[in-house]
Amino acid sequence: MIKQIAVLPGDGIGPEVTEEAVRLLEEVGKQFGHTFQFQFADIGGCALDKTGTPLPEETLQICRESDAILLGAVGGPKWDHGPGEKRPEAGLLKLRKALQLYANLRPVIVFPALVNASTLKPEVLEGVNLMIIRELTGGLYFGQPRGRKETDEGLAVVDTLYYTEAEIERVLRKAFEIARLRKKHLVSVDKANVLDSSRLWRETADRIGKEYPDVKLEHMLVDNAAMQLIRRPGQFDTVVTENMFGDILSDEAAMLSGSLGMLPSASLSDSGPGLYEPVHGSAPDIAGQNLANPLATFLSVAMMLKYSFNLEQEAQAIEQAIHKVLEDGYRTRDLAQEGERYLTTTEMGEKVRAYLKQEVPS
Ligand SMILES: NC(=O)c1ccc[n+]([C@@H]2O[C@H](COP(=O)([O-])OP(=O)(O)OC[C@H]3O[C@@H](n4cnc5c(N)ncnc54)[C@H](O)[C@@H]3O)[C@@H](O)[C@H]2O)c1
Ligand SMILES: CC(C)[C@H](C(=O)O)[C@@H](O)C(=O)O
Ligand SMILES: [Mg+2]
C-alpha cells in the first residue's frame, strides 16, 4: 500500500514526538511492505514566525491532498500575547474546521503496567477502557459573535455557544455507531439544566437513540461526569459531548492512563483525510529536552492505520509493542516513579521500534 501523509510537527515538543512517530511509520512500512510518503508543513507558532499566519494556504493544500495528517502540537509562551487570529491555536482550529473534522475520538486506555502511574487506586482503574467522542467544529470555539468591545459599563466581552441541530445530530450518530461496536453503552454529557444548546443536544440524542435500540443511552450533566470519571471510571464505555466539555473531560481522563502523554486522538470527517494528534499540547516546560513521552503520538499513528488506512493488523502491532515495552518496565519521565530510571523521547522511540519487529510474524 502507498499512502501520502502530511506531517505537521508544530511547536514545542511537537517536532520531537512527530519525528519519532515518522520513524515508527517507516518501520511499520518496512515490516509490512507499505510505502508511507511524508510531506512536512508548518502550522502554529513556527508558521506564524515564517509567514505571519498560523495556517498557511500551502499547508492546508498539502493536508487536503494527503491520505491522512499527523500533527504534533501547537502553541507556546512566545505567541501567547497576540490577538486571537495571530495565535498558533487558531491555525489548528482553522484546519479542523476547513476539513470538517467534526468527530474527535479520544480513547482512554489504562495499560495494566501503568496502574501504579496514576494517583488513583488500582481497583478503581482496573479494566478502564473508554472512548470520548468530542464534537470538534462547533460550539464556543467557533460561534459568532465573539470579541471585546467598549460599552457604557466599561469593557465587555462575548463568546457564543452556537450549534445547529444538524451539527449535533451528525456527531451523535457517529457516537451511536461507535458505541454499537463497543459495549453498546453511550453516555451523552451536557449541561441541560442550564444551557439551551444542551437541551437541544439532549432532545436530539433521545431522538437519534430510537434508531439505535441496541445501544443504552444515558444522559449525564457535565459537572457530575467530571466527578464520576474519577470516582468510578469503569462505569463509562462510550462518552459523547460538545466541544468545550470534551476538551476538558479528556485531559481529566488522561490521568486515568497515568499521563497526558498517553492519550491519542483521531479527528474524522465524512470524507477526506483524518487528522491524528496526541491530546496533549506543546509542553513548553519540557520542550527541547528530549523528555517528552511519544506514546500518545504512537497510539495516534495506530489510530491512523486503523481508521484511515484500514490496516488493523499493523495498528495492533504498534499497540502490542507499546504494551510490552511498558510491561517490561520502560518509562518516560512523566510515567516514572520518584527516583526510577527513565528513557528519553528518542530512546522510547527506539525501544518501541525494536519491540515492533518482534510483533511481526515472519
Ligand atoms: N493540540 C494541540 O496542539 C494542543 C493541545 C493542548 C494545548 N496546546 C497548547 O500547548 C501550550 C501548552 O499548554 P499546556 O501547558 O496547558 O498543556 P500541555 O498539554 O502542553 O502540558 C500540560 C502538562 O503536561 C505535560 N505533558 C504534556 N505532554 C506531555 C508528553 N508528551 N510527555 C510528558 N509530559 C507531557 C507538560 O509537560 C505539562 O506539564 C499552549 O499554548 C496550549 O494552547 C496545544
Ligand atoms: C490547542 C487547543 C486549541 C486545543 C483545543 O482546545 O481543542 C487543545 O486543547 C486540544 O485538546 O486539542
Ligand atoms: Mg485540550
From TrEMBL:
GO molecular function: 3-isopropylmalate dehydrogenase activity; magnesium ion binding; NAD binding
SUPFAM superfamilies in the record: Isocitrate/Isopropylmalate dehydrogenase-like
EC top class named in words: oxidoreductase
Domain Isopropylmalate dehydrogenase-like: start-end pairs: 4-352
SMART domains with a match to the protein in the record: Iso_dh
InterPro entries: IsoCit/isopropylmalate_DH_CS (IPR019818), IsoPropMal-DH-like_dom (IPR024084), Isopropylmalate_DH (IPR004429)
Co-factor requirement: Mn(2+); Mg(2+)
Gene Ontology biological-process entries: L-leucine biosynthetic process
Compartments in which it is found: Cytoplasm
Residues that, per the record, bind NAD(+): 76-89, 281-293
Signal sequence, start to end: none
Chain positions recorded as Mg(2+) binding sites: 223, 247, 251
GO cellular component, one term: cytosol
Key words of the record: Amino-acid biosynthesis, Branched-chain amino acid biosynthesis, Cytoplasm, Leucine biosynthesis, Magnesium, Manganese, Metal-binding, NAD, Oxidoreductase
HAMAP family: LeuB_type1 (MF_01033)
Main function: Catalyzes the oxidation of 3-carboxy-2-hydroxy-4-methylpentanoate (3-isopropylmalate) to 3-carboxy-4-methyl-2-oxopentanoate. The product decarboxylates to 4-methyl-2 oxopentanoate.
Name of the molecule in the record: 3-isopropylmalate dehydrogenase
Gene assigned in the entry: leuB
